[in-house]
Amino acid sequence: MEIIARLLKSYEVVNAGYVTNGQGERMDKNVIEPYLPRAERYWVGSLFPVAMWADMVAKRTTDPIDYSDQDPQDNNPAFPNDPNYETLFYNYLYRCIVLATLYDSFEGIAFKTSALGITQAQPRNGVTADFEVIKARKNTIGNDLNMCIHEMLLFLDTNASEYPLWTTTTTCNHKRILSTFNTPI
Predict the structure, then answer these.
(1) From CA 107, how far away is CA 144, in angstroms rounded?
(2) Structural contact between residues 109 and 31, judged by C-beta atoms closer than 8 angstroms
(3) β-sheet bridge partners, residue 116
(4) What is the torsional sign of CA 82, 60, 154, 23?
(5) Domain residue spans of the chain
(6) DSSP secondary structure string, 2-39?
(7) CB–CB of 7/48 below 8 Å?
(8) Which tens digit of pLDDT belongs to each residue from 128-185?
(9) What is the distance between the alpha carbons of residues 2 and 5, in angstroms, rounded to a whole number?
(10) CA dist., res. 24 & res. 27, Å (int)
(11) Handedness of CA 119, 182, 151, 177 (dihedral sign)
(12) How far, in whole angstroms, is CA 95 from its chain's centroid?
């Protein structure tokens, strides 16, 4: 099996069947591609012991993942040969990485740097949101990510016997991550 550099690819963030609230459905994957590696590594990957993260990356299928089908038999899971990692990924990791990518890419989507300085991006169709709406939306995504990370860490601590490479949250970077949100953009 080929080892991929990270757990998600940009088209899996944008086209994720898991993203059902409209946050990523119409986003251009090329816009978020530069943000995905950092978001995955910093916000999510840094919470895990290095050996566990490397093991997940090594065991993740190289096929595109897809959870959009109503019949689970027709979906393409990330970890078809490891039910414990699949449970973790489907219930927590996937959503955490998608939210982290949206959180990290927000300024790049909402604002552009040009010869005029920093300007608000202008959509082809539609009206841009004002700064307060943009700030509130980013804070909402950050709070959702914070909740998702908290639930994932609780799940891992509660089910540590199923994840032998996991160490408890008292030995990982979760306090740095969970205290980062609700900062002004």
Answers:
(1) 17
(2) yes
(3) none
(4) negative
(5) 10-178
(6) PPPSSS--HHHHHT-TT--SSSSTT--HHHHTTTHHHI
(7) no
(8) 667 777 788 888 888 899 899 999 999 999 999 999 999 876 555 554 454 555 444 4
(9) 10
(10) 5
(11) positive
(12) 5
- The Cα–Cα gap between 170 and 161 comes to 16
Cβ atoms of 101 and 36 within 8 Å: the answer is: yes
Nearest to 92 by CA among 78, 71, 72: 78
Q: Mean pLDDT over residues 102-116, rounded?
A: 75
CA trace torsion 131, 30, 39, 109 (10° rounding): 0
Cα atoms found within 13 Å of the Cα of residue 11, Cβ hemisphere only? 4
Whole-angstrom distance, CA of residue 135 vs CA of residue 15: 24
Strand runs (DSSP E) across 1-155, as ranges?
Answer: 111-114, 117-120
3 state DSSP class of 145: helix
Q: Is 177 helix (H, G, I), strand (E, B) or coil?
A: helix
The answer to whether 52 touches 163, Cβ cutoff 8 Å, is yes
> Tokens standing for 95?
């959503």
